[in-house]
Design a protein that fits this description.
Helix 5 (167-181) links the parallel strand 8 and strand 9 (187-193). Helix content is 38%, strand content 23%. The protein contains 16 helices and 17 strands. Strands 1, 2, 3, 4, 5, 14, 15, 16 and 17 form a nine-stranded mixed β-sheet that branches. Strands 6-7-8-9 form a four-stranded parallel β-sheet. Strands 10-11-12-13 form a four-stranded parallel β-sheet. The structure holds the ligand CSC[C@H]1O[C@@H](n2cnc3c(O)ncnc32)[C@H](O)[C@@H]1O and zinc ion (ZN). Zinc ion binds at residues 72, 74, 221, 257, 309-310.
């Protein structure tokens, strides 16, 4: 008896299919089938053509991969892109960014800045991003409307911030938002204590207890600079990561962003607690913050993901170029050209990101049963020829302008480089208006 044909909403037939899991595999002459937002078929083209697909798309010269995961950023800071450049972290924050945030950041700013960030990220092949910024409820609404996937970290500092008069108020709002969105298909709420130098032990303990109760993750800037670690040692007699370990925050649900300073004891702590590290190489380079020793972490078994950080310190949200920078920098830092090869770099930008955000069971690789979060890169251009290894070509020779199509949970958000749910003209006009207002050309 012939088997009944598999029913598909969409069948994709690319030249190359890179599932990321299993590692290092490149499939040719294969198809991928989607039904109800999930991947339900991956197999040889001849078998794929036997499926009963409502729509079939041939993708010649295209590489199909899991959508990129931007594991750290401050989405609405797109509206501060280029506001304060070429400064070290604390001067940049204290003298420029925090005053600008106090003056400009309100719900409208977060709505417009987050929309701009979402559009830039979709056009750059990103299907999921992590956000840590003020008015997280507004950011969640923009994620919901746009169709992208996101982790939204509730910002918590010891002092008042836009949208919350105290850390307690921020935590309360976070718990409420967590409850409201706990069944959302694409949004995960986590807690985001800003950094060890802005959140004291009392609030960190409160966050630990609540995160444990809710089984929520904690996302935090940690060991961004040598200055942060030195100052903590001088003031408290303890390195920040050790302090977080002593307070019980480290663990598989903890996401340590930056980690440019790693002693042997720090590494042992990361390994034994199964904490993820989120590497932001371009922000670290631009602010001269330091270098995260990615290869050392990888060899020790630490899960390392990649983030762009905000557009005010990067200055773009281009995870493909970030991944290239990570691969190149890893070699320089390790003093070895074999460090972080292209296939591992792509894994860092996809599956490791999903693992860090606690959504590995849903996304991060092209596997049957996972959500259809997929990107198609066009490798037909002259700058991509000849193609020996499409993953090498993607990481070392391809820019984000080669992102052709993108789907999140099976919904197409980018079709032939055009946003399907957002108006690019409108987004550009709104961003320019904010720029004029902020730079003082028009009345505020
Ligand atoms: C907790 S909301 C975000 C808060 O963090 C600031 N910020 C942006 N980039 C960085 C960074 O690299 N290190 C530390 N803090 C950063 C942002 O401006 C907001 O105030
Ligand atoms: Zn950051």
């Amino acid at each position: 008896m012939p088997k009944p044909a598999i029913a598909l909403d969409l069948l994709l037939l690319p030249t190359w299919l890179v599932p990321v899991e299993p590692a290092g595999v490149v499939l040719k002459e294969h198809g991928l089938g989607i039904r109800d937002g999930r991947i339900v078929f991956i197999g040889p083209r001849v078998e794929a053509l036997k499926c009963n697909a409502t729509e079939t798309r041939e993708l010649p010269d295209m590489l199909l991969a899991p959508g990129l995961i931007n594991a750290h950023g401050h989405a609405a800071m797109t509206l501060f892109r280029g506001l304060a450049d070429d400064l070290p972290l604390m001067t940049w924050l204290e003298n420029h960014i925090w005053p600008a945030e106090a003056k400009w950041v309100d719900e409208d700013f977060v709505r417009d800045g987050t929309d701009l960030a979402i559009a830039e990220q979709i056009k750059g092949g990103i299907t999921c991003f992590s956000d840590m910024y003020f008015f997280p409820k507004v950011a969640s609404e923009r994620v919901h409307n746009s169709g992208i996937r996101a982790q939204i970290a509730i910002p918590i500092l010891d002092f008042p911030i836009p949208g919350a008069g105290s850390a307690d108020e921020a935590i309360r709002q976070g718990v409420e938002l967590f409850g409201d969105l706990k069944h959302h298909e694409r949004i995960r709420i986590t807690f985001g204590p800003h950094a060890p130098y802005t959140v004291g032990d009392e609030n960190l303990e409160k966050i630990r207890v609540i995160a444990e109760e809710l089984d929520a993750s904690i996302h935090m800037h940690v060991h961004e600079t040598a200055f942060e670690v030195q100052q903590a040692v001088e003031q408290r007699g303890e390195r920040p990561l050790a302090r977080l370990g002593r307070l019980g925050l480290l663990g598989p649900r903890f996401q340590a962003v930056h980690m440019t300073q790693i002693s042997d004891d720090d590494l042992a702590l990361l390994v034994e607690s199964n904490t993820s590290v989120i590497h932001c190489p371009e922000s670290n380079l631009k602010l001269a913050s330091g270098f995260c020793p990615v290869e050392r972490l990888w060899q020790a078994g630490v899960n390392v993901a990649i983030g762009t950080d905000g557009a005010a310190s990067n200055n773009d949200l281009d995870l493909l170029s970030e991944t290239r920078t990570a691969a190149l920098l890893a070699k320089a830092v390790a003093g070895s050209a074999t460090a972080l090869d292209a296939h591992r770099a792509l894994r860092m930008a996809t599956l490791n990101g999903a693992r860090a955000l606690g959504i590995e069971a849903q996304v991060g690789s092209l596997e049957i049963g996972k959500a259809a979060d997929i990107v198609a890169f066009d490798l037909s251009g002259l700058a991509q020829q000849p193609v020996y290894d499409p993953v090498s070509q993607l990481i070392y020779a391809t820019g984000r302008d080669c992102v052709k199509h993108l789907w999140v949970a099976g919904k197409q958000l980018l079709d032939d480089r055009r946003l399907t749910r957002m108006d690019e003209q409108q987004l550009g006009a709104t961003a320019r208006t904010w720029g004029q207002r902020i730079s003082g050309h028009t009345e505020s």
